[in-house]
Sequence to fold (227 residues):
Amino acid sequence: MSARARAVFVAGAGTEIGKTYVTASLTRALRRRGSTVSTLKPLASGVPPFGDPAFGESDTAILLEAQGLPATPETVEACSPWRFLAPLSPDLAAAREGRTLRLSDLVGWCEARLQGADPETILVFEGVGGLMSPVTAEATGLDWLKALALPTILVSGSYLGAISHALTAAETLRCHGQTLLGVVVCESLGAPTSPETVAAAIARHVPAPVVCIARDGECPEALARLV
Fold:
């Protein structure tokens, strides 16, 4: 069996907190550093059909652009093979379309990419929703991550309550034996405190680097160095 490629999993402490923005920014930073990067979001909800003008704003389209790839039926399928129209957790979004997804299929797809990638390529997997969001009728994002056993970058917002959410997710990863590379606090617009304040509070309780990123900012070098 061939060795696994170098890879990282980007998980969220919640949903709609900037996880795709962070993943895309990290992808661009690694490419600027001269690395070959393959960024994948196998599960994606709230994705308009390919060809719909709104598709260009989808997570899949954003990640393809970050890799310098055109959006074609082939690149879309290679990045996000399980795409659902409804902006719901994948299990609910799939049910609306009369579709099902098994964790074994999802993990098998990811493992095939890990085993088949060039050793010089960095694979970045982006999760869906929050760490404990359901991905199938029986499994959560944590189950998916545990099956892959990849080092994790945890993305948090800076909204009111984000500190507790981030620490809860970090503790969940620790209790389940997963490696936390670092925490990224992504600026939440209209938050009552700065991302730096939130990051400092998280850093007091998490034995991993904590960095901030503005909604319109570049990927911090401290984040790129974690991969």
User: Anything to note?
Assistant: The beta strands are 6-12, 36-40, 43-44, 82-83, 121-126, 152-156, 180-186, 210-213. The chain has a mean pLDDT of 94. The radius of gyration is 17 Å.
